[in-house]
Amino acid sequence: MSTATLTTTKWGIDTTHTEVQFKVKHLVISTVTGFFKKFSGSVESETENFDGAAVTFNLDVNSIDTNQNDRDAHLKSPDFFAAEQYPTIDFVGTLKKTTGTNYKLEGALTLRGTTKAVVLDAEFGGTMVDPWGNTKAGFEINGKINRKDFGLNWNALTEAGGMVVSEDVKIHINAELTKG
Asked: What percent of the chain clears pLDDT 90, i.e. is strictly above it?
C-alpha cells in the first residue's frame, strides 16, 4: 500500500505588482475610488491550480489613499475605519475552483473589530516564470460588501434626503503571487 504525501506550496503577495482598490458611490451620482497602499498576505496550496488554497491577507488602514487628504483623514477617523483602534483589515479564507479559471474566495473579513463571512469572485490568470526565474501566479478578485455590516455607519443626508455615501462598497484586487 502506497501513501501519497501532499506538499504544500507557499506563495507570498508581490506588493509591487498587486493593487487593492475600493469604489463607493458619493451622493448617488458619482463614484469615489480609493486604494490601500500597504498590505501583506500569503497563499498556501496543495494543488497547482490553487483549488482549496488557504489565503491570508492584511491591509494597513493608515495606507488608505483616495487622492484627497481631508477625505483620507476622515476615513481613518472613528466615523469610519477608526484606524488608531483598528489599524488593520484582515482576511482569512479559502480559494475554491468553480469552473475553468473561475473561483470563489470564501472567508472571514475582519474590519473595525467585526468579523463577517464574505464571498468574492476570483479569476485565475495562470502562472508564469519571470525573467529572474521566479514563478508567479495572478488572480483578479472582485466583490461587494455592505460597510454598515462592519460598523462603518457614518452618513449624512442631502437636502433631498439622499445619502452622501453609499452602503455598498465594491472591492477590486489584482493580486500577483510569488512562489516560495
From this structure: 77
Residue type, 111: L
Domain architecture of the chain: domains with CATH: 9-179 (2.40.128.110)
| Among 20-34, 73-87, 107-121, 123-137, the least confident range | 20-34
Q: What is the DSSP string of 119-166?
A: EEEEEEEEEEE-TTS-EEEEEEEEEEEEGGGGT-----B-TTS-BSEE
Question: Within a 13 Å sphere around the CA of 84, how many CA atoms are in the beta-carbon half?
Answer: 5
Torsion 74-76-80-82 (CA) sign: negative
Give the residue from 53, 55, 58, 56 showing the smallest Cα distance to 20.
58
Nearest in space to 43 (alpha carbons), one of 86, 102, 100, 107: 107
Give φ, ψ of 69 to 5 degrees. Answer: -60, -40
Q: What is the mean pLDDT of residues 57-76?
A: 95
Helix (H, G, I), strand (E, B) or coil at 113: coil
